Amino acid sequence: MSKADIIVGLQWGDEGKGKIVDHMASKNDYVCRFSGGHNAGHTIVVGDKKYALHLVPSGVLSKETKNIIGNGVVLSPKDFIEEMAQFDDLDGRLFISDKAHLLLSYHAMIDQASEKLKGKGAIGTTGKGIGPAYVDKIARVGHRLGELQDCHKLAKKVIAHLEQNRDLLGVLGVPIPSEDELIAELESYKEVLSPFITDTTLMIWDALANDKKVLLEGAQGTMLDIDHGTYPYVTSSTTISAGACSGVGLNPKDIGKVTGIAKAYCTRVGNGPFPSEDFTQEGELIRERGQEYGTTTGRPRRCGWFDAVALKHAVRVNGVDEIALMKLDVLDGFKEIKVCVAYEVDGKVIDYVPYLLEDAKPVYKTFQGWGKSSGIRTFDNLPQSAKEYILELESLVGAKIRIVSTSPQREDTIIR
Ligand code: GDP
Ligand code: IMO
Ligand code: MG
């Protein structure tokens, strides 16, 4: 009986999970997404080709690896079918849980309209409908992929639900489709997706029982977790390792190693607290050098320094065994590099994430920069001050940094 390993983001998403999942995919029989939806944007670069994956798991480029979309995911058939079209080899190696929830166009419309109504208080969502889809799931009025089997019945249930909310939808400007329109739309999804829909939990149990290797691919990041992130500026799912179990149907004893992904600095898209954000030219330099623009929405990402306090929180809450430190090369050439080592809240210095991160001011330690790490593939060949930076981060956050990434390319990855 083997155990499943987990990859999770330790910051505010976009840490480089896609690169590491792809890097590990060929050594795994299965790669499974367990939460979120097409709010995720996981980039994989192979040679001069760049893939942006939103729902398709990042094991897809590894031809022998099977890919599963677990029950914890909210899936937009329309967007998923578009994404599938870039691959012609998905038959027999892509599976979708019949318990994953459907995200339909009205979810996205509600998301966008309610963000608009919030004005300055908006969360800054991706506008993809993730929150409203999870709202329906938790309110027990959502619909699952398995229901596509009977599109007439499903359409009736969806319309009845929309009718019950007619007044609210009217305020938000969300139209209710006709039953015939909706049936036609759902039938078109069924035609493409039904060969892929199955009980993926049984598949994963079977895989582990047969000593297969299973990798559970997280989306978003710990600080966007519905419970342990910067609520309410979070996503609507459990993004941490605990969510991997319920998101595919495993129990904690099934889990082997947890690898946490973190950038050598910090970014965030959307609103909400970010104590180590840098509003100066240095923050802009990180954005330009790191190409910090959203994979899903194209929005510029807010940039700043590595937050060791938030990272230590993430290590503990996820049970991180090892860290992959990404984008070290983006800091190449900086004379000095700052790391947030504590917060000041009401004149008191603390080393944990407080109830409201909004109130925290960063306490920085400054490190000496280095020349060039870009493309370096062994730890020994890194500049001395880059090595010192990595070792110091390790001791600040309390977990081993076993992987260091020095470019978007698969091969530019140091394993210590
Ligand atoms: P994810 O959502 O966690 O998968 O991360 P994204 O794909 O949204 O963002 C990470 C970005 O950084 C992508 O454009 C990657 O190609 C890129 N990237 C990953 N690792 C490295 C690295 O070590 N160096 C540089 N310069 N870019 C990297
Ligand atoms: P990956 O998997 C970065 C952010 C949004 C917003 C908040 C809520 O690529 O790391 P939502 O649309 O989920 O309701 O938005 O969460 N967000 C992400 N930020 N990376 C992501 O995914 C994200 N998915 C959601 O910007 O602040
Ligand atoms: Mg991303």
State the gist of this model.
By secondary structure, the chain is of the alpha/beta class. Helix content is 31%, strand content 22%. It has helices at residues 17-25, 77-84, 105-118, 130-138, 151-164, 166-172, 179-193, 200-209, 241-248, 281-289, 308-318, 384-397, and strands at 4-9, 30-33, 42-46, 49-53, 66-69, 74-75, 94-97, 101-102, 197-198, 214-217, 255-263, 266-268, 302-304, 306-307, 322-326, 336-345, 348-350, 361-368, 400-405, 413-415.
Description:
This protein has 416 residues and is an alpha/beta fold. Helix content is 31%, strand content 22%. The protein has helices spanning 17-25, 77-84, 105-118, 130-138, 151-164, 166-172, 179-193, 200-209, 241-248, 281-289, 308-318, 384-397, and strands spanning 4-9, 30-33, 42-46, 49-53, 66-69, 74-75, 94-97, 101-102, 197-198, 214-217, 255-263, 266-268, 302-304, 306-307, 322-326, 336-345, 348-350, 361-368, 400-405, 413-415. It has a ten-stranded mixed sheet, with helices on both faces. Strands 14, 16, 17 and 18 form a four-stranded mixed sheet that branches. A hairpin with a 7-residue loop joins β19 and β20 (413-415). It is globular, with a radius of gyration of 21 Å. It binds guanosine-5'-diphosphate, 6-O-phosphoryl inosine monophosphate (IMO) and magnesium ion.
Question: Keyphrases for this structure?
Answer:
binds 6-O-phosphoryl inosine monophosphate, Adenylosuccinate Synthetase, subunit A, domain 2, 2 domains, Adenylosuccinate Synthetase, Chain A, domain 3, ten-stranded mixed beta sheet, four-stranded mixed beta sheet, 22% strand, alpha/beta, 12 helices, binds guanosine-5'-diphosphate, 416 residues, 20 strands, binds magnesium ion
